[in-house]
Write a structure and sequence with these properties.
The complex is a heterodimer of chains A (290) and B (388).
Chain A (H helix, E strand, L loop, with lengths): L31 H15 L6 E5 L14 E4 L5 H11 L4 E7 H7 L1 H9 L4 E7 L34 H8 L3 E6 L3 H12 L5 E6 L3 H7 L5 H11 E3 L16 E8 L5 H13 L12
Parallel strand pairs in A: 1-2, 1-3, 3-4, 4-6, 5-6, 7-8
Antiparallel strand pairs in A: 5-8
Chain B lengths: L2 E3 L8 E6 H11 L2 E6 L6 H10 L6 E4 L3 H13 L3 E6 L1 H16 L5 E8 L5 E5 L6 H4 L8 E3 L4 H18 L3 E6 H5 L1 E6 L6 E3 L34 E3 L13 H16 L2 H4 L2 E4 L6 E5 L2 H15 L4 E6 L1 E3 L3 H8 L4 E6 L5 H9 L5 E5 L8 H12 L1
Parallel strand pairs in B: 3-4, 3-5, 5-6, 6-9, 8-9, 14-15, 14-17, 17-18
Antiparallel strand pairs in B: 1-11, 2-10, 6-7, 8-16, 13-15
Helix pairs in contact in B: 1-2, 1-6, 3-4, 10-13, 11-12
Classes of the chains: A alpha/beta (290), B alpha/beta (388).
Amino acid sequence: MKKDNPTKKQNPITDLLRMDRIPHIWCPGCGIGTVLTSFAEALRKSEIDLDKVAVLSGIGCTGRVAGYVKMDSIHTTHGRAVPVATGVKLANPEMKVVVFSGDGDISGIGGNHFIHAARRNMDIMIICVNNFNYAMTGGQVAATTPKGANASTAPYGNFEYSFNLPYLAEASGATYVARWTALHLRRVTKSIQEALGKRGFSFIEVITPCVTLYARRNRLGDGLNLLKYYHEKSEIQHGADTRTVDISYQGKLIVGKFVDIDKPTFLDCMNEHLGKVLGDKYQPYGVNND
Amino acid sequence: MKKVKADPKGVLSGSHYLDGDYAIAEGGLAAGCRFFAGYPITPSTETAERFSERIPSVGGVFIQMEDELASIAALIGAVWGGKKSMTVTSGPGFSLMMENIGLACMMETPLVIANVQRGGPSTGLPTLTGQQDMMQVRWGSHGDYKIIALSPDSPQECFDLTIEAFNLSEIYRVPTFVMTDECVGHMHEKVVIPPAEEIELVERKWYTGPKDQYLPYKNDKDMIPFMIKIGDGYRFHTTGLTHDERGYPVINAECQDVCVRHLNDKITMNADKIIRLEEDEIDNAEIIVISYGITSRVTTRAVRQARKAGIKVGTIRLITVWPFPEKRINELAKKVKAFVVPEINYGQMVLEVERCAAGQTPTVHVPHCGGWVHDPDDILKAIKEAAK
């Protein structure tokens, strides 16, 4: 192993990563590392105590994020990071609990958990890296693959409707919903910072290039071509009606902060309700929980 | 292993008239369970209902999840968050839990799952009894791993063994199962809950060394690694992937060998300490009836009649079902004319008895497909046949 050169300027996010696990497994041109950089930057800027941040991932390319962050981190099973995060949050309410996972993990196999955690307004943050396909397994069609795009299990093109994730998140009860692309790094950072400062279920979707599979199969060029697409076709519309933000194949990408409201979280509701009903018999849970 | 007394807050000391499902809930609360995630399923729902009623005033959380996949996932999160946690289910829900039972085994997560068994396969007999998940509990998730499973035969034992399940799960850092059934789950009997100071609990094996030296999967002398909890500043990593001592994924055959061997060996090599049997009149027995759970109570009548008829019958009740008492069965196989194994399934634990008998003595199975307990006469007939 190479010895660190003390005179070399250290990358500012090194402290937030498990450097003994670098190099990572992601492909050149992939957007996951970019989103991870934004996440690290947001943590640094928010000056949050990193001992009180837990990062959970499911399975897939983005599922590997939990393994690279130097925080309490759990790499769970496919789709189940959200309910595991629910357990972490309820056992340890002072934690900032972040689920960092892919579109297939969150909205495909884990879709049911996603909507229910949002419905409960569980105080967790979801960072969903959407690359429009199942990349780890070789570019299969996903619940997010735009109609018409080609995938290895949709070799004649995808004919299914795809999820509009911000709409799904808002309809399910999320209190913070934003969408950006891998081109909008500073905005991703800002959104993550905002969500870190909030209580409640927050959902940040980041559209990222999958150069090796999605782009190659669809002859969309390399990472730079995809960033160009994001540049040309994305349109910032804060507060946009999430019903209007679905994504068509190589079509317009409406990005921005769509939802930012406050409402009591699962634990707030539990404490308020049980306190009212049970009176002195009930000791508020997770309040002053050291 | 650090032993502590139960927290009186969770212990409903006194004499009660409870069904098995409620007794499981009380056992969990007495054992210090402060997180319960579940999903309604007959005939186990009463345990969840009892938890939802009792846990708010005990200082814990009850959450009804969206399905059983989520219930056990939430348990895993809560355990790493520092809580003792349990859930309850029955056949179809148990099938859904298999995925993350594997994750809990792989991450060496102590938790307790009670399965109030009903007749299967599939939706089967939601309201009627069965003992048909006995192999599923051992083998149901993919890959090689070992678990601990206990089988109570009464509401009192539902209480006692749920506490024991928590203790074993903490000692060996392994999911531990209370494999009861609809009959015991819905049977009302006297349950005596002792004072808190008489309930001995095993505390989680907390790591206390320097933070920068913590390795989540470095085995201690007793083979079991130390645990920490999320939020304590260890910034640890754990994964369902094959991992090294640091909890980092290592994808090769060498690491797999160390990792998987460990998951199995920690149970196999401690089997003698884990296994509990109840033996009766074994010494001069020519026939031994081996049973567990509700079936052992039905067996009692058949055995009494067989003894009246002059047959020397001994009995073994499996309190611990997994790990299976291989050595004891093998030893007894040398001495007896036959084993008789009644169980409410079409042949599950009998396969273990046969394996351990290793051809030294015949094994007679008394199957029952579920829906009701055996007619004791069927067991008696099998004993008589075997004694011929």
